[in-house]
Design a protein that fits this description.
The chain has about 270 residues and is of the alpha+beta class. It folds into 2 domains: about 5-140, Fructose-1,6-Bisphosphatase, Chain A, domain 1; about 150-260, D-Maltodextrin-Binding Protein, domain 2 (3-Layer(aba) Sandwich). It is about 35% helix and about 25% strand. It contains 7 helices and 15 strands. The strands form 3 sheets. Strands 4-3-5-6-7-8-9-10 form an 8-stranded mixed beta sheet, with helices on both faces. A 5-stranded mixed beta sheet has the order 12-11-13-15-14, with helices on both faces. The longest helix has 26 residues, at about 5-30. The chain is globular and about 50 Å long. Bound molecules: D-MYO-inositol-1-phosphate (IPD) and calcium ion.
Length: about 270
């Protein structure tokens, strides 16, 4: 079915818009059900769980047979060619504090390849979409990333894991990188970081330790905006490291991240 990726995007956008409205409404009622996950700083709220439940219910009804992988409740068993990858709230710490930088992220895989993705900032309604081979868009405008070519002029977004030892290593990498670039941004949502890089609001983004739901949709959006989305030293993007950068800066940033062992440490 040639239009399958576009049809999957249509479903994804519809579901994510309703889910983002739910996230916003729940935030207005006050944050509840706060618990911790992997460490004492890794939080989950009632809104993460109920938003995931909502998206799963709608997808089950709209597309029975599809598999769903979600951050809060793992993977369901499907029978078809499609797997949905969901982060109900990416940027949960921002959500907790009321910083307007948290998003619903939903990607659709067809036969194991991400072909459609949408990320919507639930706090302000900004929405990024992409279909593989058909470009990345926000508000009807096609995205092309930044034209950066000099490391010293590059605004680099990054993020940190929740475990103290990993953070200590990530802090060392940032300490060495900071004198070489324009500046560093830590905005608190990897999905939005990738969309910002796709749009050129930052020049590039990298992070160690991301999960698939953090980057499946945003990674496609960055790729479709023309960025290279890779790991280090020929590795694919993944938990070891994800680097998203325009062609003009990818090589230089990649090489310093290798030199600083950004994919290393705990
Ligand atoms: C986190 C955010 C954050 C990144 C962390 C992620 P969550 O996702 O994307 O920016 O630095 O690695 O775990 O916990 O808010 O869904
Ligand atoms: Ca999350």
């Amino acid at each position: 079915m040639p239009n399958m990726p576009h049809e999957l995007l249509r479903v994804a956008v519809e579901v994510v818009r309703a889910a983002a409205d739910l996230v916003r409404d729940l935030r207005e009622q006050g944050v509840s059900g706060v618990a911790t996950k992997s460490t004492s700083t890794d939080v989950v709220t009632a809104a993460d769980k109920s938003t995931e439940r909502y998206v799963r219910d709608v997808l089950r009804e709209r597309r029975p047979g599809d598999t769903v992988l979600g951050e809060e409740s793992g993977e369901s068993t499907g029978t078809g060619r499609v797997r949905w990858i969901l982060d109900p709230i990416d940027g949960t710490v921002n959500y907790l504090y009321g910083l307007p930088q948290y998003a619903v992220s939903l990607a659709a895989e067809l036969d194991g390849q991400v072909v459609a993705g949408v990320v919507r900032n639930a706090a302000n309604g900004e929405e990024w979409t992409a279909v593989r081979g058909a470009g990345a868009y926000r508000a009807g405008r096609r995205l092309h990333g930044s034209a950066a070519t000099e490391l010293g002029q590059t605004l680099v977004a990054t993020g940190f894991g929740y475990a103290a030892q990993r953070r200590a290593h990530q802090a060392q990498v940032v300490a060495r990188l900071l004198p070489l670039v324009r500046d560093i941004r830590r905005l608190g949502s990897a999905a939005l970081d990738l969309c910002f890089a796709a749009e050129g609001r930052v020049d590039a983004f990298f992070e160690k330790g991301l999960n698939l739901w953090d980057h499946a949709a945003g990674g496609l959006i960055a790729t479709e905006a023309g960025l290279l989305v890779t790991g280090l030293a020929g590795a694919p993007p993944g938990p070891e490291l994800l680097l998203a950068a325009p062609r003009g800066i990818h090589g230089a940033l990649h090489d310093v991240l290798v030199a600083f062992d950004a994919a290393g440490g705990p």
